[in-house]
């Protein structure tokens, strides 16, 4: 049994969490009060919704944990799950996430996890010269 499966089995026993498919449709999610809290997209990591204020408040501690990955300005963090200590770290952070969720008034759904983030906007369209080269390469007979 992987660390992620151990964590999911433990979270299944928490009365204030409901498991189901995540909004991003990849893996397994656990939600509270209709808000997705944690996603398991693979056997070796979990994405956790902490809220942006909580991430900012905990950032110094999160950056010192080798199992945590934080993106600038993010409200989701990734916990790498390799051993029982990582599972315990995740469970502790899920408790923080639940407190954050309970302290907030009913709100919109959780923002998208990293798997749902829209791709970066496409760059500028090629200029006239580049477009002509592409058109010549795609023209019939080439």
Describe the protein in words.
The structure is a single chain. The chain is an alpha+beta fold and 142 residues long. The model is unreliable at 116-137 (pLDDT under 50). A six-stranded antiparallel sheet has the order 1-2-3-4-6-5, with helices on one face. The N and C termini lie far apart (56 Å). It is globular. The chain has helices at 3-12, 52-64, 84-103, 128-138; strands at 18-20, 28-32, 35-42, 45-49, 68-70, 76-80.
Tell me the distance between the termini.
56 Å
Q: Given the C-alpha coordinates, what overall shape results?
A: globular
- Succession of helices and strands: HEEEEHEEHH
Strand content: 15-25%
Low-confidence stretches: 116-137
Number of strands: 6
Helix content: 25-40%
Largest sheet: 6 strands, antiparallel
Q: Whole-number radius of gyration?
A: 20 Å
Structural class: alpha+beta
Mean pLDDT: 78
Number of helices: 4
- Major β-sheet strand ordering: 1-2-3-4-6-5
Annotation keywords:
142 residues, alpha+beta, 4 helices, 20% strand
SSE blueprint:
Layout: H1 3-12, E1 18-20, E2 28-32, E3 35-42, E4 45-49, H2 52-64, E5 68-70, E6 76-80, H3 84-103, H4 128-138
Antiparallel strand pairs: 1-2, 2-3, 3-4, 4-6, 5-6
Helix pairs in contact: 1-3
């Amino acid at each position: 049994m992987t660390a992620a499966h151990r964590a999911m089995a433990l979270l299944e026993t928490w009365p204030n969490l409901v498991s189901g498919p995540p909004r991003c449709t990849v893996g397994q999610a656990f939600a509270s009060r209709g808000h997705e809290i944690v996603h398991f997209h693979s056997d070796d990591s979990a994405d956790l919704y902490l809220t942006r204020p909580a991430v900012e408040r905990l950032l110094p501690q999160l950056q010192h944990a080798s199992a945590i990955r934080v993106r600038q300005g993010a409200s989701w963090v990734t916990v790498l799950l390799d051993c029982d200590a990582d599972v315990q770290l995740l469970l502790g952070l899920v408790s923080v996430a639940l407190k954050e969720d309970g302290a907030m008034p009913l709100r919109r759904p959780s923002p998208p996890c990293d798997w749902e983030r829209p791709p970066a906007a496409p760059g500028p369209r090629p200029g006239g010269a580049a477009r002509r080269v592409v058109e010549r390469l795609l023209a019939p007979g080439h």
